[in-house]
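Sanity check

After download, print the first record. It should look like this:
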Amino acid sequence: MVASMNERTAAIEAAEIDSKEAWAILDRKARRLLSISAVEFVEKYKRGEYSPDERPGLMSLVALLPTVDECVANDANKRSA
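Expected structure tokens:
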């Protein structure tokens, strides 16, 4: 789920996203911050090639990983139901 805030009304809107959309968000951010794809980022992160304080913005990528994992799991559950 992704939340956004409307600055005019200060209302928070939430939208459910699927795994494809979650990966697209992670990919855009990884390309912008690290100039690599989301897949490359995840592989390098899992191998321990990044430390959390190594680069500015890295933690914002790491923070997206549980959302991507949750979306992938939800999509798998929907397909098996």
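If your output differs, re-run the checksum step. Summary of this record's structure: Residues 18-80 form one domain.
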